[in-house]
């Protein structure tokens, strides 16, 4: 059993400081996940990669008892948390745009329209992904881990305990489903 696995079990048992050690040990990988997430969201969120990792860490802390058998499952969960944070940021951005905060004056309306379009697009993808999860949970997890988490096909295959070829087929099917869903067909 590896050091990370032992730390994850200690965190699940409620050992003080174990979750902090997990985050510290996997910080580089969490930062890579965050960088992947930020690259896909563009200017939609005000968070940077470090802020996204820190926000994810706060969510881990709030969740309390987390039980992961190994590093792969922890990183899969981290990808889900980062996706949720990106969705929350998009919703907040849309609320602000709809008058939920102080009024902002923009001279170039094209800029503000493009930000709304990006946030709106992220929310549409999120809704389509929720629909996909109702149809096939594994397809949705593959999309979540690859698109939102930036995990490789090999890492996804290990986490879901399937072959890389199955991940490739699932990714292809999920993309077709999402494309049709986003077109409204």
Write the layout of secondary structure elements.
Blueprint: H1 3-12, H2 18-25, H3 27-41, H4 49-63, H5 71-100, H6 109-135, H7 137-148, H8 153-160, H9 164-183
Task: Please tell me about this protein's structure.
The protein starts with a helix and ends with a helix. The protein contains 9 helices and no strands. Helix 1 packs antiparallel against helix 2, helix 3 crosses helix 4 and helix 7 packs across helix 9. About 9% of the residues have low confidence. The chain has one domain. It is mostly helical. The longest helix has 30 residues. It is globular, with a radius of gyration of 18 Å.
Total DSSP E strands: 0
**Measured on Cα atoms, how large is the radius of gyration?**
18 Å
Q: How much of the residues is beta strand, in percent? A: under 5%
Shape: globular
Overall pLDDT score: 75
Q: How does the major sheet shape up?
A: none
What helical percentage do the residues reach?
A: over 70%
Cα-to-Cα separation, first versus last residue: 48 Å
Instruction: Supply the helix-strand structural class.
Output: mainly alpha
- Written as H for each helix and E for each strand, in order along the chain, the element string is HHHHHHHHH
Tally of discrete structural domains = 1
Number of helices, counting only DSSP H or I runs of 4 residues or more: 9
Q: Which residues sit in consecutive blocks of at least 5 with pLDDT less than 50?
A: 101-117
């Amino acid at each position: 059993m590896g050091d990370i696995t032992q730390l994850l079990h200690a965190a699940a048992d409620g050992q003080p400081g174990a979750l902090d050690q997990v985050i510290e040990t996997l910080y580089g990988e969490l930062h890579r996940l965050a960088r992947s997430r930020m690259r896909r969201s563009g200017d939609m969120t005000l968070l940077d990669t470090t802020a996204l990792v820190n926000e994810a860490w706060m969510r881990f802390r709030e969740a309390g008892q987390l039980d992961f058998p190994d590093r792969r499952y922890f990183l899969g969960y981290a990808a889900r948390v980062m996706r949720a944070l990106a969705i929350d940021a998009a919703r907040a951005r849309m609320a602000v745009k709809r008058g939920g905060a102080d009024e902002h004056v923009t001279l170039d309306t094209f800029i503000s329209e493009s930000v709304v379009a990006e946030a709106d697009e992220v929310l549409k993808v999120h809704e389509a992904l929720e629909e996909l999860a109702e149809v096939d949970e594994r397809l949705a997890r593959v999309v979540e881990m690859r698109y939102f988490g930036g995990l490789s096909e090999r890492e996804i295959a290990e986490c879901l305990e399937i072959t890389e070829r199955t991940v490739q087929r699932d990714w292809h099917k999920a993309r077709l489903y999402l494309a049709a869903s986003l077109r409204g067909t």
